[in-house]
Each structure stands twice: as structure tokens, then as C-alpha cells.
Amino acid sequence: MTIVPIMWTAWGVVVLFTVAIYLYRSNLQKNEEDQIFLDDSFEHERSAQAAIVAKVQKVEPVLRVALWLAGIASLCVIAYYVMDVINQFK
Q: How far apart, in whole angstroms, are the C-alpha atoms of residue 7 and residue 80?
């Protein structure tokens, strides 16, 4: 068995995971507001926004790692095909 199907499968899984995490973060951020509530009567809004920010901050490191993994996997795929082209012309 060749390594190509395994390589493409791993790349696809990493990219799908990255897209899923990115969509989750985007879904969280759509409810986030760019306001500062200065009055004490808006404490419930302030706590809701703080909860959203906390969730987004938990997702950020996972997304960063997933983006790095997707980049590394993409480089591996590109490197494999570049080496294949080089080997064909030897």
C-alpha cells in the first residue's frame, strides 16, 4: 500500500478539524458585542459578554494548533509531489 491515500486522509482530517474549530469560534463571536457597559443595571449583559469572551479564549489555542497542523500537513503533501516530480526527471 502506498503512502498517498494515508497522506491525503490525514490532511483531510486535519483540515476538516480546523474548519470545524474555526466555524465554532465564528459562531461564538457572532453574539459578541463591541460595547462597554458602564452602568450597573447592565450587569447581566456584562456577565454574558464575559462568558462569550472566555469561551472564545479557550478555543483560540486549539485553533492556533490546528492551523499549524494544517499548514504542516499541506507542506508535506506539496513536498511529496515536488519530490515525485524531481524523481521522474532523474
A: 9
